[in-house]
Amino acid sequence: MRHLLTRLKFRHLTLVLSLEESCNLHRTSELLNMSQPTATKLLQEIEHTLGVPLFERRPKGMIPTPFGSLVARHARLMLSDIGRLQQDIDELRTGISGVVRIGTVVAAMPDLVAPAVGRIIGENPRVSISLTTDNSDVLLVELQNGRIDLMVGRPISIVENEDLNVETLEDEDLRIVVSPGHPLLARQDLSLRDLVGERWLLQPGTSPMRRAIEAAFTVERLSFPPHPVESASVTATICMLAETSLIAVLPHRISAFFVRHGAIAELPVQLPRILRPYALVTLRNRPAGNALTRMMALLRAGAAGDETGD
User: Fold this and answer.
1) Which residues form a coiled coil (predicted)?
2) Which of 152, 171, 207, 287 has an alpha carbon 20 to 30 Å from 95's alpha carbon atom?
3) The model's pTM
4) Distances, alpha carbon 107 to alpha carbons 104, 136, 252, in Å
């Protein structure tokens, strides 16, 4: 450990991180405002210090080896921690300030994440928010790589992970939705069995919502609808429903918003509550500054129905 601390410099870390992202040594040297021979020398130094090759030269550029990807991940976390140190010093001196990088699934935005963001920026003008929306598994990788500070989602692969803090926030129902003029809206006695033969628009097979729908059909001992159209985008789902007779599934928070605006309608079919509840996930061994701590408190309060967050 002492050997690494005395030999590694911030320039080594920024070089590895930049080279992993650009895969081009010339471009990396320009971004870091150094000559290409200097960049080459720094790369040779860190590879010699660690005793492993970090990048492999290929026709398409400098490709990170497994060692290189590992070092880049730790470099990103270390540089993020240095930035957080300055932020924490500013917070201690002036009060709550800094940047909170939030990753969230789209379904959690309307009634959970957006109100919490609105509250914290209203309370603290010096707080900046960075929002990333994606599916839960992608956000989990972003969190572990140090690109976001917290995530709100339904990650499947974190049941046993000592590196993560996982807090359950709330459950949510799913709704089956169609276009406002869909013929099935005229029926009042619908069941899931009646929808097996319809064409469906669903999230990709690896998503928590897709697995929940598959489980719902299994519980009812029904065959899963064949050949569904797949999309992870809420916007694409709404557009497709407007132009087709497809059936889709959305979290109730999302469907209620678009129903209020007349964009879609909900079918009177009750789905079993199988979807995994939202979780608030952070890295276990990384200190949380005042802004991040306040953001987490507001998310917990919003999930519990407490508007104050105190």
Assistant:
1) none
2) 152
3) 0.53
4) 8, 11, 8
